[in-house]
């Protein structure tokens, strides 16, 4: 949260277009950009906290969670949202936010489970509660920058993502150790299949929660939904036949082409489609599992999931690059020659 600001991105794009078209001077554009940089957030802290809970609840259902997992993930989402809105006031929390959040989320999951008559899947709840903090999007962008030979920014972003993964896994590992000593061992839960309709409802709920987290106006919500539906449908229905990597590859192509069409026809920033679409596709939760397995001395699982993360990220980058190279007919976009 806070890394992507769609409102500022749209305004900045408009200023750039006006300067290029010589409607305003570069000096005037610079003044406008300074005002945009100092503009206030669109949403109150309360809305942001609620958005965290919505995304966590939706993801819990997508991960086949039942009512217990959904409620627990929502509570953790609320807690993490409150911590996020208050993190700027505390220096230590600001720099160690991923680790502290993971620790709090893990202990909260154990605590909630202790009050329930039926046990819940602790790890599904933790991953769902922390999903917004997982740097899968940053990892994918880093791979894209490296692929396009932007080595300095790509390397910096790649190591930044790795540090966040390590912080999250470390916080969770400490939380698991303390939680098991206080509340007992983690229950082994076999997740049951959930209805297709409920999963799609969960996707809608999660995407609506992303709107305030990405600082986008409510009128942009349909574009968010369009991107998420295209990404999720492509991955969900192609992965059983093609595998996770090829599913991500075709999902990235579809999202990239959709972003190109919307950008050219409706004069919207391509990121308005790319960002919510990529959030559905990125392998953040898989990367978190990999680092957590490594800390728990499960080396084989850690290496296997780390390889899966790299392969999916490369597939996403390849799909986006191919989508950017494809030329779309102007007549199909409503653009005159």
Mean pLDDT: 85
Proportion in helices = over 70%
Largest sheet: none
Number of domains: 2
Instruction: Assign an overall shape.
Output: globular
Radius of gyration from CA coordinates: 21 Å
End-to-end CA span: 40 Å
Low-confidence blocks of residues: 331-337
Number of helices: 16
SSE order, as H and E? HHHHHHHHHHHHHHHH
Lay out the secondary structure.
Elements: H1 6-20, H2 26-37, H3 45-62, H4 67-86, H5 91-95, H6 97-115, H7 122-130, H8 136-147, H9 151-183, H10 196-213, H11 221-242, H12 244-266, H13 271-281, H14 284-295, H15 299-325, H16 330-333
Helix pairs in contact: 1-2, 3-4, 3-7, 3-10, 4-6, 4-7, 6-7, 6-9, 8-9, 8-15, 9-14, 10-11, 11-12, 11-13, 12-13, 12-15, 14-15
Descriptive report:
- The two termini are 40 Å apart.
- This protein folds into two domains: 6-37; 45-333, no CATH class.
- 77% of the residues lie in helices and 0% in strands.
- It contains 16 helices and no strands.
- 42% of the residues are buried.
- It has helices spanning 6-20, 26-37, 45-62, 67-86, 91-95, 97-115, 122-130, 136-147, 151-183, 196-213, 221-242, 244-266, 271-281, 284-295, 299-325, 330-333.
Q: Main traits of this protein?
A:
337 residues, mainly alpha, 2 domains, 16 helices
